[in-house]
């Protein structure tokens, strides 16, 4: 009897061994050889976990968190609190520092437990195996996957230290509600850093990953509390905490302080996300490739690669430092709401700090929602008379050297301009004779501006305007005298106009203003920053004369509603045909601001806002912001 039993056991062991070899063989066929699998599919030396990226204001304060499905705040090993290491090693893998990736005793215990069940209930996984499962494999509980897990774990232990594995593990585990890793979990559930948690709070969080749905603190806190007690007992058994600490932690009441995702200032953040794409495209050579593309397919492929590059940078965890001034941004948004109560009329603006030459505020329109059409930089409209200082007056003064008191014949006349003559008229139909340049600009006489553009010449005048790189100013505009009054085919944006007017604050020199000051990686190395060349558009002497004339617009001309207490205030109003849009672009020594108001364009085309415009809402907005 004893002999037959022995033979039966041997046969069973042999059968089990053959079965094991069969399963291993199948597994090897599935994942190729280990070397092939690692060489072809896995770059263990470049093991990567996505991390959150951030947009910061001018003082380094968080404005917006950037992540898709995984909210992860990556912490290096030396930043991880020892309590978390102790809690997870005690509960998940107490022999972690002894095994080589898998724990034979643990697997045996799991095998015994699962043998009594029709399902695979217990995994016997080490921390290394769990890391492998999180990164490389599925969470399916089968013996076949378990074999892959063991093989991968063994290889991982060869290539990484125990500290490296713990770092990756504690940053990869899922805590529910999109939170991955201990820091994001701590910030989400307790609104504070993992370094500031008590023993009880650490144990509470340690309880969640075992089953994030079942132990969800938001919906089932009592279950999480129960498992917290089990975690604390394990830590006590492993002598990671004292008896006194254990008692104190079990008695501590856990109070959640759930933190919502930080995402403020949608107008500005939307702009920054687009500007970041432009910055990467310029610095990483994508713009050069796009310039050389000869087919739509090539352009699409380059843009796809650029989008992938942007997403990779976001996943790596970058900090986008900006010039945003939150108080000014709030004031800009509120001023548009306050002074444009008409629901069918919209307004947008941009504000640039003249000293730093950075964009400190931008609005996308009333009731703006993130990533929608942003009127501050995407709305291109006829600039009206706001273009006159840039295209007519400054070029004429720079070429001739005359001053604000110089006179120009401004009587009504017709000019050859294509198939038909162009015969400009002043707003009120009044015909004037000879006026000074100051008078012409302050009163915004159309006949004066056209006369100046004609005398300077379209080609010469546009050689000045070209330096501002207006995106939608076309070649056909260059032969069109009505552009002296803002009659462009497509128009300009508030941001473009504001940038151009900063020239008057910089002695005639122009550098495009941006919102991004620098972009840093997780180690605070600078990855990107703008390096825009400065262009001298017109001379300092011309600029001084223009500043004097722009100040005259505010004191004695169409900008008389401006009421700002500052050593210098100047600017120019603009009104497009039939009052479809109204503008004010002005500056003090500290800021330059461009404001556009008008109805959104629809299939019926632009509509007049004449009755509303006469209350000068654009100038009132300027007053609010500059105060």
Automatic annotation (TrEMBL):
- Catalytic reaction annotation: [GlcNAc-(1->4)-Mur2Ac(oyl-L-Ala-gamma-D-Glu-L-Lys-D-Ala-D-Ala)](n)-di-trans,octa-cis-undecaprenyl diphosphate + beta-D-GlcNAc-(1->4)-Mur2Ac(oyl-L-Ala-gamma-D-Glu-L-Lys-D-Ala-D-Ala)-di-trans,octa-cis-undecaprenyl diphosphate = [GlcNAc-(1->4)-Mur2Ac(oyl-L-Ala-gamma-D-Glu-L-Lys-D-Ala-D-Ala)](n+1)-di-trans,octa-cis-undecaprenyl diphosphate + di-trans,octa-cis-undecaprenyl diphosphate + H(+); Preferential cleavage: (Ac)2-L-Lys-D-Ala-|-D-Ala. Also transpeptidation of peptidyl-alanyl moieties that are N-acyl substituents of D-alanine
Q: Glycosyl transferase family domain: which residues? A: 60-235
Annotated keywords: Carboxypeptidase, Cell membrane, Cell shape, Cell wall biogenesis/degradation, Glycosyltransferase, Hydrolase, Membrane, Multifunctional enzyme, Peptidoglycan synthesis, Protease, Transferase
Q: Which residues form a coiled coil?
A: none
Q: Which residues cross the membrane?
A: none
- Name the Gene3D superfamilies on file: Biosynthetic peptidoglycan transglycosylase-like, DD-peptidase/beta-lactamase superfamily
Give the main location.
Answer: membrane
The UniProt record lists the Penicillin-binding protein transpeptidase domain at: 347-627
InterPro entries given for it? Beta-lactam/transpept-like (IPR012338), Glyco_trans_51 (IPR001264), Glycosyltr_51/Transpeptidase (IPR050396), Lysozyme-like_dom_sf (IPR023346), PBP_transglycosylase (IPR036950), PCN-bd_Tpept (IPR001460)
| Cell location | Cell membrane
Q: Does the keyword Membrane apply?
A: yes
Entry protein name: Transglycosylase domain-containing protein
The species is Alkalicoccobacillus plakortidis
């Amino acid at each position: 009897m004893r002999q037959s039993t022995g033979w039966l056991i041997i046969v069973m062991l042999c059968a089990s061994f053959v079965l094991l070899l069969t399963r291993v063989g199948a597994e090897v066929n599935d994942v190729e050889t280990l070397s092939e699998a690692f060489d072809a599919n896995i770059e263990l030396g470049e093991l990567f976990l996505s991390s959150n990226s951030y947009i910061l204001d001018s003082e380094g304060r968080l404005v917006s968190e950037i992540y898709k499905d995984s909210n992860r705040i990556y912490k290096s090993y030396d930043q991880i609190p020892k309590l978390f290491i102790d809690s997870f090693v005690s509960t998940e893998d107490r022999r972690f520092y002894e095994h080589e990736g898998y724990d034979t005793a643990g697997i045996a215990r799991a095998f015994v437990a699962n043998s009594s069940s029709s399902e695979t209930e217990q995994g016997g996984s080490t921390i290394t195996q769990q890391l492998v499962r999180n990164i490389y494999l599925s969470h399916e509980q089968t013996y076949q996957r378990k074999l892959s897990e063991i093989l991968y774990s063994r290889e991982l232990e060869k290539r990484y230290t125990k500290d490296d594995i713990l770092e990756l593990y504690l940053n990869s585990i899922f805590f529910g509600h999109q939170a991955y890793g201990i820091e994001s979990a701590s910030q989400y559930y307790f609104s504070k850093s993992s370094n500031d948690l008590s023993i009880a709070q650490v144990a509470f969080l340690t309880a969640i990953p075992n089953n994030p749905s079942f132990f969800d603190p938001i919906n089932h806190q009592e279950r999480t509390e129960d498992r917290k007690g089990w975690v604390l007992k394990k830590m006590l058994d492993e002598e990671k905490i004292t008896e006194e600490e254990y008692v104190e932690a079990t008695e501590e009441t856990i109070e959640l302080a759930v933190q919502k995702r930080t995402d403020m200032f949608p107008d500005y953040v939307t702009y920054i996300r687009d500007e970041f794409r432009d910055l990467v495209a310029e610095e990483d050579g994508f713009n050069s490739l796009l310039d050389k593309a000869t087919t739509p397919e090539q352009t699409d492929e380059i843009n796809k690669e650029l989008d992938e590059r942007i997403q990779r940078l976001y996943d790596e965890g970058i900090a986008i430092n900006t010039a945003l001034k939150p108080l000014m941004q709030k004031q800009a948004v509120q001023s548009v709401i306050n002074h444009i109560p008409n629901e069918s009329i919209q307004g947008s603006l941009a504000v640039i700090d003249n000293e730093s030459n950075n964009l400190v505020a931008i609005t996308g329109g009333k009731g703006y929602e993130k990533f929608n059409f942003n009127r501050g930089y995407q709305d291109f409209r006829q600039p009206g008379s706001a273009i006159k200082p840039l295209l007519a007056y400054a070029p004429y003064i720079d070429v001739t050297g005359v001053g604000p008191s110089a006179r120009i014949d401004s009587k009504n006349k017709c000019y050859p301009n294509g198939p038909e003559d162009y015969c400009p008229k002043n707003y009120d139909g009044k015909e004037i004779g000879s006026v000074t340049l100051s008078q012409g600009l302050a009163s915004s006489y159309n006949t004066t501006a056209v006369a100046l553009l004609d005398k300077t010449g379209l080609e010469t005048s546009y050689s000045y305007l070209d330096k501002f790189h207006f995106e939608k100013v076309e070649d056909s505009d260059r032969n069109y005298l009505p552009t002296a009054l803002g009659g462009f085919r497509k128009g300009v944006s508030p941001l473009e106009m504001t940038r151009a007017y900063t020239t008057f604050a910089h002695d005639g020199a122009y550098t495009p203003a941006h919102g991004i000051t620098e972009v840093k990686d997780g180690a605070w190395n600078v990855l990107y920053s703008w390096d825009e060349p400065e262009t001298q558009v017109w001379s300092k002497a011309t600029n001084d004369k223009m500043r004097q004339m722009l100040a005259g617009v505010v004191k004695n001309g169409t900008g008389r509603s401006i009421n700002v207490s500052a050593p210098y205030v100047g600017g120019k109003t603009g009104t497009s045909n039939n009052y479809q849009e109204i503008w004010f672009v002005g500056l003090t020594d500290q800021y330059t601001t461009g404001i556009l108001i008008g109805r959104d364009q629809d299939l019926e085309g632009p509509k007049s806002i004449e009755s509303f415009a006469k209350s000068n809402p654009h100038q009132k907005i300027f007053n609010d912001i500059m105060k």
